Amino acid sequence: IRCWSNIPFLTVPLSRAHGKSFAHRSELKHAKRIVVKLGSAVVTRGDECGLALGRLASIVEQVSMLQNQGREMMIVTSGAVAFGKQRLRHEILLSQSVRQALHSGQSQLKDMAIPVLEARACAAAGQSGLMALYEAMFTQYSICAAQILVTNLDFHDEQKRRNLNGTLHELLRMNIVPIINTNDAVVPPPEPNSDLQGVNVISVKDNDSLAARLAVEMKTDLLIVLSDVEGLFDSPPGSDDAKLIDIFYPGDQQSVTFGTKSRVGMGGMEAKVKAALWALQGGTSVVIANGTHPKISGHVITDIVEGKKVGTFFSEVKPAGPTVEQQAEMARAGGRTLAALQPEQRAEIIYRLADLLTDQREEILLANKKDLEEAENKGILALPLLKRLSLSTSKLNSLAIGLRQIAASSQDSVGRVLRRTRIAKALHLEQVTVPIGVLLVIFESRPDCLPQVSALAIASGNGLLLKGGKEAAHSNQILHHLTQEALSIHGVKDAVQLVNTREEVEDLCRLDKLIDLIIPRGSSQLVRNIQKAAKGIPVMGHSEGICHVYVDADASVEKVTRIIRDSKCEYPAACNALETLLIHRDLLRTPLFDQIIDMLRVEQVKIHAGPKFASYLTFSPSEVKSLRTEYGDLECCIEVVDSVQEAVEHIHKYGSSHTDVIITENEQTAEFFLQHVDSACVFWNASTRFSDGYRFGLGAEVGISTSRIHARGPVGIEGLLTTKWLLRGDNHVVSDFSEHGSMKYLHESLPLPQRNAN
Predict the structure, then answer these.
(1) CA 20 to 30 Å from 640, out of 237, 481, 482, 690?
(2) DSSP string covering 617-632
(3) Residue 395: which domain range?
(4) φ and ψ of 27, to 5 deg
(5) Assigned domain for 755 exists
(6) Where do runs of H (alpha helix) occur along 235-360?
(7) Considering the domain boundaries, does residue 150 fall inside one?
(8) Residue 378: its pLDDT value, please?
């Protein structure tokens, strides 16, 4: 804990030998000394006369937060000219004749011509006000700021350089934020760009070059350059094919076409890139990002320091493989080729993958053994997750059987005609199934998920991005290799991609132009995080699996314990395992109730009592903390209800719309339960564990969806398809169908073509 102005704040361990820039975004959180360069477009208003106060306050708040973490923050700021222009314009208007102003009328006063103001005079008038504003804002966070004005000469004179360096170090030592600006009141006009020839030479002719020079002089870890664009694009932003460059490497300048400079300020993007590369060469990491966007400017600086994918990151280390954006584009292209194959060819790929799972069993289990040993040695996984991570011969055999089911059922999945309509004579309309596009499946501790999801994507003609947990890295690697081997028999290897880069899940969820659907497979926390992080991309799945079994007063003694045991004990970590057992009140203190309790004790299931159940007991088990709990282990809650109606109400209030079961011999009661429980899967006298794509005959599933749009319950091939409309005409135009036109709408339903019986 450090203290400043009697206010304690936490510090983070930050230390690193300067001399080499960070290789990856994830390392930026270790940056201790940071320069934030605020471009003119960030600091000034849209009319270029005055400051964007709200934006500036947000930036100060972020800088203060990082300063209070123990980092050494410096700001290179523009804005003095704009602030001075505002003040001088105001003075000019006030100095004009009051008589003239009144005579001109208010409307003409607004349009009164203002003389062109010289920039150096504006800077002289604005510097003190700009600094006073910064001081007032930083004071709110108990942070002191200090102003330093420099010119190019201060860096060329050795004594002045040493003085500047010493001043900055002393300010940082005292936990003061230096605010640096070119002294625009005396600076000479900018000269043509004739420098940037080496690490020791760069002229300070704008704040981009100043920030770069300062970053290298002060051995800064990170330089953040904020402008009015998202980062560096491969062509001018706004052009049709412009793409944001996530990571820029020295030597990539040839692949970039620069546009004009920003609306204000001295330099454009080309000047920023040259300054950034110069700083990178000097050992400082650089990120260029948007500091004006209202949705991100409030956290853009902290997001960059946290390693999130914001703006363009400059790195000297090129990754061995493609970027995730390139992988997504490869998956889309591969998916389109896959969808164009004959159904028999897609099925052949899946059959080949099924064979490889059994043929390469030893290699798969060896890789899985490495994952298990590493997880156990590190102690990073709880027992239920270790069980999910584990593969076995029987699991691989079951996987192969499921994949063959998918292959057999996929013959007419893509391109199947769902509806045919004769709109008019010789004008026929068809609705046909097509792939969704590119799927992103994020899964943890479940390597068996990879071949299942891959087979479903192949059968439905979708491109696929897979992001597995690092705890299953070895298993995922070999399973993906086998998947690509199977895809290669028809030249569509790129359709399924495994993301091995350091991409954060949150960053993947922002790729809304490349990904069409996200499917999370893992803990409820993972699903919630992805649903929160997804930006414009639909998420299919369920956040929790709070499954209920209701034992009715008319339940069969023979069925109750078997169904409850299977639902809770067969695989307690599964999302379709029993979590809450509802007992009809009439069954309390009966032999059947005793049998249920005895069975749960024998199976070592820890029981939590619901409030109502606890009220019936003298000595009850621990009372449940929440009736909305997914235990994922040998634990469950028992609660008492008075009727099937109360059971339904309880499920609606505390359930997750996943899977719910009634055990009863009363058909009328069962039908009431089946019709009224609003869950994806509702069963009568059957285990909750049947809620599974393989057990439903779907071959496998990408997950179980509790949403109400598109797909619900176990999602197989059908849930990965959408539709498009095909209209075949012969010189038809809408005007022919007007009141006095020559044609009439028929809208006749036509028979569907025969489906493949195989």
Answers:
(1) 690
(2) -SS--PBPS-SS----
(3) 324-533
(4) -85, -10
(5) no
(6) 269-281, 300-305, 324-340, 343-359
(7) yes
(8) 84
